[in-house]
Amino acid sequence: QAAVALSRFGLGRLAGEPLPGNPRNWLLDQFERYAAQSQAWAAEPPSEVLLKYYSDYQRDVRGQDELAARQRLAKLSQERYRASVNARAASALTTQAPFAERLVHFWSNHFAVSVDKSPLALLAGSFEAEAIRPHVFGRFEDLLLAAERHPAMLLYLDQARSTGPSSPVAMRTAPERQRGLNENLAREILELHTLGVRTGYTQEDVIQLARALTGWSVSGLPGLPANGRSGVYSFSAALHEPGTRSVLARTYSQRGEAQAVAILRDLAAHPATAKHIAGKLARHFAGDDPPPSLEERLAETYLLNGGDLASMYRVLVESPECWAGAPRFKTPWDWSVSALRGLGWCDDIGELRLASLLTQLGQPAWRPGSPAGYADTSENWMAPDLLLRRVEVANRLAEHAATMIDARSVAAQLLPGGVSDVTATAISRAESPSMGLAMLLASPEFLRR
Q1: How many domains does the chain have?
Q2: CA 98 – CA 82 distance, rounded (Å)
């Protein structure tokens, strides 16, 4: 059970870390040890500051030297993205609450954004730090509202400029110049963030929610109303579509921002949302095909406790299905973090060029192919070319660490669940210490959690 606690619930055993004497209590105690504002993130600028850079760029790009402005933004975006990836990794490598950090990564993928879209390379890290980290042990409703209101999500899904067809802005703008209603955020809220696919909502529900969401914007960006501080979420009444909305056969007559808030609160409390969230958590911790009984207990706990996420995590820790489930194939992020923790590589993360390493492995941070996030099933990460890339990275890590670490002596440390005879024999026959360590990192046991 100690091995399951460290690897399946946690992020892999840290070099020199003793085995937890009581694995369940070790996990539950992390609820109190978790630091939402970890030291690793302390030096990262907030989204408000980063959006100031983006606002300056948007103004400069209309000036005389457009190329220079684009080059400055590209350079800054690359620097901030790499720094945020390093902060995320440092938090995972040094945390005293690895179960909690895993949950941060889980929810960040649930509310996925992508750095492929400008200016998300600037904002993806701040999105995780500001919208996800403070709410992982709170209520889902609060996490939902924080994620949807964050500038990163609003810009990623083109919500910031969505304009109601009868809004004050639309009424005074010529038809050919109107931006129009954007349904992206509304659709992803229903399909991905709350109810899930094929749960009974209709295209009309998407449109009605999109109209309710008009006005949810980012203050101070060029072309948007300046409401208070620049670079933060703000509600713009000038963009909002007036009138009553009907979503899932329920009527909402609230005015302004309160209308969409009321809809999101009801979506968070919906049984379909409970089932959707329960299924994703069960799959993450109990295997690709989790027992329906576990999903049912999680959904029931969600509904009985008003969407309290900590209550659901307790069910996971106390459920035998999570401890007895078949090992899952690690994602590239999981594998990288567990390897670095096991090797004791907690300093000089910048030397690793971790952002590039994750790209090589096929899972660049905050860069999924769609708003659905990265797949959370083993089969998506077991392709031969992806395995070959892990072997290449394992060799690279081993070459750096082999002068200080003997694979034969650390095998039991990295694999507290046991080392197979095949792996032990391969390590003992390795031609060099670095090759032995690479074999350990690429072994079937270490590739799974």
Answers
A1: 3
A2: 22
What's the start-to-end Cα distance of the chain, in Å? 12
pLDDT, tens digit (0-9, with 9 covering 90-100), for 33-80: 999 999 999 999 999 999 999 988 887 777 767 888 889 999 999 999
**H or E element: which one contains 83?**
helix 66-94
Segments in 305-383 forming alpha helices (H): 309-318, 320-324, 332-343, 354-361
Q: Are residues 45 and 125 in the same domain?
A: yes
What is the Rg, in whole angstroms, of the alpha carbon atoms belonging to the chain? 23
Q: What is the largest CA-CA distance in the chain?
A: 77
Cα–Cα distance for residue pair 399/383, rounded to 1 Å: 25
The encoded tokens of residue 444 equal 């079937």
DSSP class of residue 150 equals: S
Same-domain status, 352 and 436: yes
Does any domain span residue 180?
no
CB of 202 closer than 8 Å to CB of 187: no
Has residue 266 been placed in a domain? no
Residue 348 has pLDDT above 80, yes or no: no
Do the beta carbons of residue 213 and residue 162 sit within 8 Å? yes
- Statement to judge: residues 69 and 91 lie in one domain: yes
Question: Residue 96 gets which letter from DSSP?
Answer: S
Residue 378 lies in a domain: yes
- Please list, in sequence order, all residues whose beta carbon lies within 8 angstroms of the beta carbon of residue 2, skipping any fewer than 6 positions away: 19, 20, 23, 416
| Listed residues 140, 171, 205: the one ending a domain | 140
Residues 370 and 432 in one domain: yes
Q: What would the two tokens of residue 303 be?
A: 């509904």
Q: Are strands 250-252 and 233-235 parallel, antiparallel or unpaired?
A: unpaired
Q: Are 295 and 410 in contact (CB under 8 A)?
A: no
Task: Judge contact between 28 and 318, C-beta under 8 A.
Answer: no
Q: Which of 118, 206, 210 is nearest to 163 (CA)?
A: 210
267 within a domain of the structure (yes/no): no
Indicate the pLDDT class of residue 401, thresholds 50, 70 and 90: confident
Angle CA 423–424–430, to nearest 5: 85
